[in-house]
Specification:
This is N-acetyltransferase domain-containing protein. Pfam families: Acetyltransf_1. It comes from Nocardioides flavus. InterPro entries: Acyl_CoA_acyltransferase (IPR016181), GNAT_dom (IPR000182). The protein is an alpha+beta fold. The chain has one domain: Gcn5-related N-acetyltransferase (GNAT) (Aminopeptidase), CATH 3.40.630. The chain contains 2 helices and 3 strands. The chain has a 3-stranded antiparallel beta sheet. It is globular.
């Protein structure tokens, strides 16, 4: 079911409604290339910070408003 939503713009719309173009940071599970690519397209970049979680290593992504 989830895969049927890929590429529909739902993620972009939700992100835009939630934070707009503001400075922001988030944590993404290491190896989740689909999520990392999505957030990179929205202006986020990995900043090198990591934290271990029960599900695996998480990596921080940040975005600075222009």
């Amino acid at each position: 079911m989830r895969a049927s939503s890929y590429g529909t713009g739902v993620g972009f719309t939700l992100l835009t409604e939630a934070i707009g173009a503001a400075d922001a940071y988030l944590w993404v599970l290491d190896g989740n290339e689909r999520a990392i690519s999505f957030y990179e397209r929205q202006g986020f970049a990995l900043d090198g910070a990591t934290k271990p979680e029960d599900v695996g290593l998480e990596r921080r992504m940040v975005r600075r408003a222009d």
